[in-house]
Structures are given as C-alpha cells and as structure tokens.
Amino acid sequence: MLFNERIIAEALPAMLEGLVLTVEIAVWGMVVALGIGLGVAAVGLSRYGALRAAANLWLTLLRGVPLLVFMYWLYYGMPQATGANLGPFLAAVLALGLTGSAYMAEVYRSGLQAVDVGQHEASAALGLPGMTAFWRVTFPQAARFIIGPSINVFVGLLKGATIVSVIGVADMLYVAKQVSTRSFAPFELYSTAGVILIAITVVVALAGLLIERRLDRGRVRHG
User: Fold this and answer.
1) 70, 74, 76, 82 alpha-carbon torsion, rounded to 10°
2) Digit-coded pLDDT (tens) for 30-40
3) Residue 51, Cβ neighbours under 10 Å: how many?
4) How does DSSP assign 2-43, residue by residue?
5) Domain 5-216 adopts which CATH fold?
6) What are the residues whose beta carbons fall under 8 Å from the beta carbon of 145, sequence distance 6 or more?
7) How far apart are CA 11 and CA 167, in angstroms?
8) Where do the domains of the chain lie?
9) What is the pLDDT of residues 39-87, one digit of tens each?
C-alpha cells in the first residue's frame, strides 16, 4: 500500500487548526480542574467528618464515570434536563475539567500534606489569619509538590481531548475523519494525527519531568 503524501500535505493545515482547538480545550479543562480540584481538596482536608465524606463521595463519582459519558451527558442530556444548551466546546471543557478535578484534588491533598506541620504552627504563632497563612506560607511550599503531578494530569486531559469530535467539536481527528471520507485515505490521515498527538504528549511529559527534577533538586538543597 502506497502512502499518499499529497493528501497529507493538503489536509495538514486544516488538521493543525483542529489541533489548536484540541489543545485549547485541554488547557481550559485544566483551568476548571485546578479550580474545582482545589475546592474539593480543601473540603476533603476539613476537620469535619461529614465534609470529608462528601468530598470522598464526589471524587468516587467523578472517577467512576467515563469521560465519554460526561461529554454525552453535558452535550445531549443537559439541554433536555435543564434547557441549557452548552454547545460542544463548553461541554467538552466542562467534561474534561470535572474529570481532571478528581485527580487534581488528590494532587492538592498530597502536596498540602507534604508541607511540614511546623510551618502551620509557625504561621499560627505569628498570628496570621487562616487564609493568609494558606496563601502566603502553606500553598507556596506545597506548590513544589503539586506542579509535577499537575503536568501529568494535563497530559491525561490532552489525551482525553482527542475524543471531543464525538460531540461535534472540529478538532484534528474530526478534520481527519471528514477528509478521509472524501479522499479514502484514512490510514494516512489518522496515522499523521496520531504521530502529531504523540509528539505533543511526549514534549509536555518531558517538560513536566524536567520541572519535577528541578523541584526535587530544590527540595534536596533546602532539605
């Protein structure tokens, strides 16, 4: 079987435009995951057992529902249930964000618990209010433990964003499918899309690894 480079060359500009949309959805999904994940982590670390139980139940539900089901429910089910039409882009972002928030909550929890308890005691001794102590003392130190795993979560969201075409988002795979139906060259187009996505995932993962190693060296120097 011959590999048709001409079809790839013709389709590549449109596929790259779709790739930008894929990355954009993953980035916004990560923003949602960061926000919701921090809130869930805060509830999960509460001194009240009922709040911790509620956070654990929420995380169990989020982890148990496949990403594809979230996308279908938000895009097709939400309009019927509430009358609110989110549109494919927003539905994809929210589905990724909700799924990612379950993992970010654990990343936050682990990072916050890794901060030496003496830091909390020192903040209290200085009379710092709770939120001030959190944002100025606890969280900056926890960030060293959070950044590396957060990049791993983003890689997962980037992979998840490759299925958004199922709800009509014109991402790279959507473009590849449309072109392949006209050119009858699915192998070339999907192979090209796969190579591009793998390359981006590897670059992001390597960047995360380098950042994590730098942070590890910083912890050793200050440990």
Assistant:
1) 140
2) 999 999 999 99
3) 14
4) ---HHHHHHHHHHHHHHHHHHHHHHHHHHHHHHHHHHHHHHH
5) MetI-like fold (1.10.3720)
6) 110, 111, 114, 115, 215
7) 22
8) 5-216
9) 999 898 888 888 999 999 989 988 888 999 999 999 999 888 888 888 9
